[in-house]
């Protein structure tokens, strides 16, 4: 409370006892291609937040990639995977990580 009073007296910052709620960041939409001959899939998505970082993580092998969402809200990522692998996809804005979408790699 003393900190709030000092801040108010100096006029440097405001003080509040409650934090404003933040809305969760939704996952972008995403689809996976079947694995190619080299054992990689392409994750393509849209409806992302421009400039956000987008991540795709293959839960089976514990490997992932990170890219950036373009000015149209779209992205393309490529990572190793097999048919049936669950790929977690999410976007990060600043230090706030969004909700996770799980995409299953389809059969060829």
**Helix count, per DSSP?**
1
Record field, number of beta strands? 8
Q: What overall form do the CA principal axes indicate?
A: globular
At the fold tier of CATH, the topology name is Immunoglobulin-like
The level-1 CATH class: Mainly Beta
Task: Please tell me how large the radius of gyration is.
Answer: 20 Å
Instruction: Quickly give the structural class.
Output: mainly beta
CATH architecture: Sandwich
CATH superfamily: Immunoglobulins
Q: What is the residue-averaged pLDDT?
A: 87
* Fraction in helix: under 10%
Terminal CA distance: 63 Å
Low-confidence stretches: 1-16
Order of secondary-structure elements: HEEEEEEEE
As a percent range, the share of strand residues is 35-45%
| Number of separate domains | 1
List the helices and strands and how they pair.
Elements: H1 2-10, E1 29-32, E2 40-46, E3 53-58, E4 63-68, E5 75-80, E6 86-93, E7 96-97, E8 101-104
Antiparallel strand pairs: 1-2, 2-5, 3-4, 3-6, 6-7, 6-8
Structure description:
- By secondary structure, the chain is mainly beta.
- The protein has a single domain (about 20-105), classed as Immunoglobulin-like (Sandwich), CATH 2.60.40.10.
- About 10% of the residues lie in helices and about 40% in strands.
- The protein contains one helix and eight strands; from the N terminus they run αββββββββ.
- The chain has one helix at about 1-10; strands at about 30, 40-45, 55-60, 65-70, 75-80, 85-95, 95, 100-105.
- About 20% of the residues are buried.
């Amino acid at each position: 409370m003393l900190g709030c009073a000092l801040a108010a007296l100096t006029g440097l910052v405001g003080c509040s006892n409650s934090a404003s709620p933040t809305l969760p960041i939704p996952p972008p939409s995403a689809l996976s291609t079947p694995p190619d001959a080299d054992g990689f899939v392409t994750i393509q998505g849209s409806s992302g937040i421009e400039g956000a970082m987008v991540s795709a993580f293959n839960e089976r092998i514990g490997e992932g990639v990170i890219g950036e969402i373009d000015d149209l809200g779209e992205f393309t990522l490529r990572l190793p995977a097999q048919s049936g692998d669950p790929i977690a996809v999410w976007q990060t804005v600043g230090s706030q990580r969004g909700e996770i979408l799980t995409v299953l790699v389809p059969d060829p």
